[in-house]
Amino acid sequence: MGVDLRLEELGVSGLGEVDEPAFTGLAERHRRELHVHVVVRGWIEDGFEGMTGLRGVATSVNRQPAVAFYLWQKREGAYLPLTLDVLRVTGGAITEIFTFHSDRFARLGLPDRLPADGTE
């Protein structure tokens, strides 16, 4: 549903005419989506405390956000598939995380390795 359609429902023609409670209602759905996006981006960009040699790739599985994790393998000179975490999102919150092993990567079109990025 577009913002224009939602504004019509509120009986206004522009955001300048929307009071604070109405604007909060318009933004609520996006705030929840943003929360999940921030969590996933944090996993990819910052990793996990105490864990090194790990890279994440954002993806989706069955329309749910997911992160494919790759672990640095020195012998291979590349990051190889480790796990795939699929997030169940309910009401804008992450309610469950399903972890799958690396054998699912190929079926989902994920790369079978990631090249070194200079941080190893």
SSE topology string: HHEEEEE
Q: Major sheet, described briefly? A: 5 strands, antiparallel
N→C terminal distance: 44 Å
Structural class: alpha+beta
- What low-confidence regions span 5 or more consecutive residues with pLDDT below 50? 1-5
For the secondary structure, the number of strands is 5
Verbal overview:
It comes from Paractinoplanes durhamensis. This is Nuclear transport factor 2 family protein. Helix content is 29%, strand content 35%. It is of the alpha+beta class. The chain has one domain (3-115). Strands 1, 2, 3, 4 and 5 form a five-stranded antiparallel beta sheet that branches. Strand 1 (54-61) and strand 2 (64-73) form a beta hairpin. It is elongated. The chain starts with a helix and ends in a 5-residue tail after the last strand.
Characterize this entry briefly.
This protein has 120 residues and is an alpha+beta fold. It has two helices and five strands, in the order ααβββββ.
Core attributes:
alpha+beta; disordered N terminus; 120 residues; Nuclear transport factor 2 family protein; 5-stranded antiparallel β-sheet; single chain
Describe the protein's topology.
Blueprint: H1 3-10, H2 20-46, E1 54-61, E2 64-73, E3 78-90, E4 93-101, E5 114-115
Antiparallel strand pairs: 1-2, 2-3, 3-4, 3-5
